[in-house]
Amino acid sequence: MQNFPTLEDIKAAHQRIQPYIHRTPILSSSAINELAECKVFFKCENFQKVGAFKARGAANAVVKLTEEQKKNGVATHSSGNHAAALARAATVAGIKSYIVMPSSAPEIKKKAVKSYGGEIIECEPNLMARETTLNAVVEKTGATFIPPYDYFDVIEGQATCALEMWDEGIDFHTIMAPVGGGGLLGGTALTTKYNSPTTKVIGAEPEGADDAFRSFQSKKLIPMQGPNTIADGLLTSLGILNFEIILEYVDDILTVNDEEIIAAMRLIYERMKIVIEPSCAVPLAALLKNKEHFKDQNVGIILSGGNVDLGKLPF
């Protein structure tokens, strides 16, 4: 059993990353509350630096590096928000970043990484190519590998999002987060159970990438093969460390189909007038699909990010 980050570790991480992040607002919508038959509090990480919660974990991992480690910079493989978050955190810290990205990564994501000062190394769009290319980059440059989610410094950083939610003095009955690699859900579960052991923590996942759901049900880690969902931020297989945290601290994982995700995404655009990416809408879709479980509760939902290609909206 790993020594999971403690509440003190998470509070220290929150202090550490202050210069790197926004404290994002919590918004609500009376129309959505009425529809959901409960009070929903949306933690808007779509307003976070780099447009996603990933800014937190990347910043914490970079700030915790030793001076010796910083000399050669940092490296990772990512097609999305972690790539931009790490590039930005490295630039703010005055060090180099090497980002291995699949050739199929959206142009908008590549532009973001470049604008934050990251050096992109392209590879074939499969996990083996990503890992092989990353290993070659690390060997050549001596950079420190910062994994996107299966890494305690990253999980500790992601856990600070829920810490801010609990600081607001809302008595949450349930807190929901999307789950891909599991860094956000794992971190959210730790913070929430430390603050309020009776509050339920629920993960939400697309049916087309439901490895966390299946792993949670069977109590053994089942890697995702050939994920297929509009929620492109949740295609990753669940991380090993995160799986341990989730088994211990998460109460349930719910799944929704792409149609339900698109409907929830559209609802947030129309009612809240804010931009979110499809992955963000998964918890609201799960809540609306299972309304009877949440009736009259205070439900916190983490809106994980807002990096969406506006030319390819699904409605």
TrEMBL record:
A Pfam family reported for this protein in Swiss-Prot or TrEMBL: PALP
Cofactor: pyridoxal 5'-phosphate; Mn(2+); Ca(2+); Mg(2+)
Keywords, sorted A to Z: Magnesium, Pyridoxal phosphate
Domain Tryptophan synthase beta chain-like PALP positions: 17-305
Protein name per Swiss-Prot or TrEMBL: Pyridoxal-phosphate dependent enzyme
Organism: Belliella calami
